[in-house]
Amino acid sequence: MGTLVAFEWLSLDGVFEADSMADWFFPYDSPGRRRTILETYQRADALLMGRTTYEMLAPSWSSMADDEMDGLAGVLTHTPKHIASDGPAIADWGQTTTFGGDAVPEVQKLKDDGGTLMLIGSGALATTLAQAGLVDEYILLVQPFVMGTGRRFIGEEMQTALELVQVTQLDQGQLWLHYRVKRG
């Protein structure tokens, strides 16, 4: 049985999607943060995302050379990707497959294949998979900024008991938090 890890970058108040990343994300960029992000993505045997996240990431990342962004472009391009989509999706970035319909049985099959499947972005998909008991771990990169408004990654409908695995303080007050879902 594989492991499904939800990896998300958020503001301190849990916002992962807002009109602008200029306030809460870009000012905290640093070599240490980029290295931590790269190392986190390197743990994945495959990536999982919804169509919206894929369509947001694919145009820019697929056009980069493998060594750009400290090697992150190559990791993202060459790691197999699975896209959950309710509508037509163009999957032309590296090794990418799509599936439609109910994501729960599709993701269960991917987990049954073994390895580490990393869910990135895709808040609605994360909620669906968490409610189905498929998310095993959460890795959160928390920026020291209160956004106030925007879409929160963890909504009211997500209730899960977690145990802390690791905390790493990065420069500029950022935290890399790794939690495991408590079972039973």
Key words describing this protein structure:
single chain, 184 residues, alpha/beta, Dihydrofolate Reductase, subunit A, 8-stranded mixed sheet, two-stranded antiparallel ribbon
Please describe what this structure looks like:
The chain is an alpha/beta fold and 184 residues long. It contains five helices and ten strands. β9 and β10 form a beta hairpin. The mean pLDDT is 91.
Rg, alpha carbons: 16 Å
Output the CATH homologous superfamily.
Answer: Dihydrofolate Reductase, subunit A
Oligomer state of the chains in this structure: single chain
CATH topology name, in short, is Dihydrofolate Reductase, subunit A
The DSSP helix count reads 5
| Beta-strand percentage range | 25-35%
Give the helices and strands as they follow along the chain: EEHEHHEEHEHEEEE
Lateral arrangement of strands in the main beta sheet: 5-4-3-6-1-7-10-9
Number of domains: 1
Percent helix, as a range, is 25-40%
**Could you report the average pLDDT, rounded to the nearest whole number?**
91
Which CATH architecture? 3-Layer(aba) Sandwich
Describe the structure concisely for a colleague.
The chain has five helices and ten strands; from the N terminus they run ββαβααββαβαββββ. The strands form two sheets. An eight-stranded mixed sheet has the order 5-4-3-6-1-7-10-9, with helices on both faces. With 184 residues, it is α/β, with parallel strands linked by helices.
Explain the layout of strands and helices.
Layout lengths: L2 E9 L3 E3 L13 H12 L3 E5 H12 L9 H7 L2 E4 L11 E4 L3 H10 L3 E5 L2 H9 L5 E7 L7 E2 L9 E8 L5 E7 L3
Parallel strand pairs: 1-6, 1-7, 3-4, 3-6, 4-5
Antiparallel strand pairs: 2-8, 7-10, 9-10
